[in-house]
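Q: I have two molecules that I believe assemble together. Could you output structure tokens for the complex as a whole instead of separate predictions?
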Amino acid sequence: MAKYYLDYLDELESEAIYILREVWAQFQNPVILFSGGKDSILVAHLAKKAFYPSKIPFALMHVDTGHNFPETIQFRDDLIEEFGVRLIVGSVQESIDEGRVKEEKGKNATRNALQITTLLDAIETNKIDCAIGGGRRDEEKARAKERFFSHRDEFGQWNPKNQRPELWNLFNGKHFEGEHFRAFPISNWTEMDVWNYIKREKIAIPSLYIAHEREVVWRSNSWIPNSEFLKLEENEVVETKKIRFRTLGDITITGGIESDADTLEKIVEEVSAMRQTERGNRSDDKRSETAMEDRKKQGYF
Amino acid sequence: MNNQLLRFTTAGSVDDGKSTLIGRLLYDSKSIFEDQLLAVENTSKKKGHEQVDLALFTDGLKDEREQGITIDVAYRYFTTPKRKFIIADTPGHIQYTRNMVTGASTANVALILIDARHGVIEQTKRHAFIASLLQIPHLIVCINKMDLVDFKEDAYDAIIKEFEEFSSKLFVKDIRFVPISALLGDNVVARSENMKWYNGSPLLHTLETMHISSDHNMVDVRFPVQTVLRPQRDGFIDYRGYAGRLASGIIRVGDAVTAMPSGFSSVVKSINGPSGELKEAHAPMSIALTLEDDIDVGRGDMIVRTNNKPEAAQDLEVLICWLNEDGIRPRTKYLIRHTTNDQTAMIKEVIYKIDINTLSRNFEDKSLTMNEIGKVRIRTTKPLMVDSYRENRSTGSIILVDESTNETVAAGMIV
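A: Yes, here they are, computed for all two components at once.
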């Protein structure tokens, strides 16, 4: 007898495809926010499936802090070419040059928070009414309360206390001019689900996720990659280690872990045995208990 | 039956141990990471607790932490070798009925917590009623804090009796009971040493093994079209695919189908699934269909099997839960969303309001404000292709949107 139930990965896949098609049907000018990280790569891959045999009908939008891993940019450009989609770049450097934002000062200065202005500017300039993101509810406690279709007011702000109820599969993307939505098709996926799916579907990912030798510095309990942006503190030494990254953000704030996992199989095995959350190596989340919640309210990813 | 996804909802307050139970499930299934554990251990110490306060694992937004309450639905995840679980963790207070309804709308199972010392209280009834109203197929009543009644069997039996007295009024197919101590872990993941008189399964084992494949309607083919795919590129010049998620039923290549509301009939030519061509597909798969004939089908239309059609209805009786601070305004126009179809609708009248604590119907009071539930008559400008909610959760549900604010103001179940 045939089985008439879905394996959980298939169910998550169908759910994400449904969301992506709803976004396409309900909005005029949606884009996929693309960071070059595994979650946004997964979203692009799911979008390809959702509209096959048509091309992905969304442009990809990258908020470029200028503090990138070179591998990420190469990967992004290859993917754009392969999928035949348009790329929109919002540049944090430009926002700084235009005086829209000011560079942070001090030892752990990052451009993380500056992205909010660039992102919202890019949304406004390009008249984007829905930005599709790879956010997952298991990542962080503020994200656990996020909707699939998440409303942003005309200032791009999220109001967690007055979110639209989401029932069954009925998503309400109605909005006034100047407001926009964020849509999160992989809300219900966990880190483990993402890796299992990437392995199952043999999705290409940046080499940064795979164990490799790299120059790093030990700081705040993780291995921060050496780069032109890194200012060495006293007592800090650059070492060469075999590491890989669990999440990808700016090169200045993304810490790696020591690892020998150099194949997808080994990564899945390593992740399933992992005892730390993936964002544990992100200094942007370590700033305070409510770092993510505060940034999200202002319009962060 | 391995590796299915099971969604369950829990409603309640910290007082009846809901957060502790969720914390226990996450902790014992090893879904808690070391850095989360460390953070919770630190907070527990700060608060002066001797043991790790499991409830802290489900701590939410700033306001929620400050006030020690849950305001909004939070989703949590854990996996065992048998299944993946999604918990919709919702507040149980009457003020938050709308969140309970939201969490319940997609759940396979509702967990209801009862404090063994207090027995069935108003909140228990409210939650059970909502589970029944939203047609959650399975209900598990967890009688918690058994440690505080010395793990006594008669305390457990008395509560079951009390629960069954009022649950006979509900429409739930499958109700089970389990005596637990979320704090100590008895009968949550491992069998309790303190309650040898209990012959049933621990909670997690029940969640891992209960039959949920029949929760979807696999009889009536209902395929609401989300969008039409027209690639117009080499190899696919004439391709016209109807994209959507199969709401119910099993559809096969060669099936005789009819597009509603136009009534044009055709035959399924091909089915494209997420990983390629299929001979058949079933709910809730996302697919794209092509038909043998070129008929006019677009978003909002529904493809069904020719010999099994939904009802085309313009006048609906609907049980609605009001979700918005602005109360119901009869005779006002709202936008109604049913599957992928948007129409204009008017609430003709409120037939009755339900007191969700006593389950009694009030035919006198015709107002509905936020968190209230009632039965209304709705008329739409064009017919909707509906089934009753009892038969089909997808084609029997609607939401109402107030077009002056764009907010979702009500959720409804077609009677």
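A: One point stands out. Chain B has seven helices and 23 strands.
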